[in-house]
Amino acid sequence: MVMPWPLPDDSWFRPEPDPPGPPGEDVRLAAEVAYRIVGGVGLRARRITVTVQNRVAILGGVAPDVDARQLAGQVAWQVPGVVDVCNAVRLAAKR
User: Fold this and answer.
1) What is the CATH number of the domain that holds 35?
2) Which residue has the higher pLDDT, 50 or 19?
3) What residue stretches are annotated with the BON domain (predicted)?
4) 89/95 Cα distance (integer angstroms)
């Protein structure tokens, strides 16, 4: 008899993940992250988009250099309620 191997998501040793917050929570977090990025030093004139899904901030757009990209990610991490950040901001092409 072959015992079925549990899938990676079927762990008996870790608790269930946190349930998603209320639907308005993601909208509030996206607004808060965007507000802080706009107010951040060196990020005011950058084209950075913010979306939030299940308390995960997803950053997109274009930054002129690595420092601006990292700063956007750091600002998003500092927002209370954000559990993860996906920094998909691309670097602008050199001319």
Assistant:
1) 3.30.1340.30
2) 50
3) 25-93
4) 18
